[in-house]
Structures are given as structure tokens and as C-alpha cells.
Amino acid sequence: MGIMAVFKVGSRVSSNHASNILALAILAVVLFGCSTSSIVSASGFSRVHVYIHNDFTDQNLQPLSVHCKSRDDDLGERKLTISQYYHITFRPNIWGTTKFWCDMSWMDTTKNPPALVQGTFDIYINGREYGICNDECNWSVRQDGLYEFKTKTSKKYELVYPWPASS
What we know:
By secondary structure, this protein is an alpha+beta fold. It has helices at about 15-35, 35-45, 125-130, and strands spanning about 50-55, 65-70, 75-80, 85-90, 100-110, 115-125, 135-140, 145-150, 155-160. The strands form two sheets. The chain has a five-stranded mixed beta sheet with strand order 4-1-7-8-9, with no helix packed on it. The protein has a four-stranded antiparallel beta sheet with strand order 3-2-5-6.
């Protein structure tokens, strides 16, 4: 919604006309602020928390290696032992294009010979997560894949990404 005011050059504006224009300007600011409040909360002014939990069940497995990045940030590599979690917090950008992905790997020592299991997974995509978990997203990394907690729908963890097949 755009507001356009036209003034004639050289004409006198009465104080009543000026106060009407001021009232319209204030009303426009208030209406614009109200109409964008849902956009603001969805597009990046509230802080988002992403938790990645190592929920492996076999105590003999090696730690889970997690290396998360966005287009602008490299968060470095973390090693998570069983039951540990990695907490990422950020503010999505105002364009609604924030995306984080993680390279994850672990050595499956239950196989003979042990096999490296690895994959790259999108753990936060601005538009997708807003409909699933809002500003707190929980991922459970298990031996069969990555599960996301569906806060707004089923209210349980659902498999989103199975581990890629080993070559």
C-alpha cells in the first residue's frame, strides 16, 4: 500500500489541511506496522534456535561429526557423543532466504569392516521451517537418519532424511 501526497508549489497550506495530512501519515504508519507484524515474525526479526541431538542408541558408535554452514557463516565442526546436542541460534534475514545445512558423518562400527556414513542435510530453510517448527527446531540424529520434531502438525519426530546409501 503506497501513500502519495501532492502539494502545489507556491500554494499556502492551511493549518487544518496540514493537521489532516499529519493524521493521515500517522494512520499510515500505524496501519503499515500492524499489517507487517506477521511478516516481521516470519521473516527474520525473531531469534531462531536449532537443536541437533545425537540420539544414537548403540554406545559403541563413534561420535557424530556435525559441520554446519549458511551462505554467510561457517559454524565449524563439532563432535557429539551420544545424548549431546548442538545449539545454533540466529536471526533469519529480512529477505526470507536464510538457509543452514550441515555435513554429518559417523563411523558405523557395527558393520564389518566399519563403514563411514555421511551426508549433507538442510536443517533450516526459512519458509519450510516456519510452517513446521517456527522459531525452535529440533533434529534427532539416529542410526537410520535425521528426524525433525513437527511442532505445528503431528507433535512428534518424523523421519525427514534417511542416511545416503554407502558406496
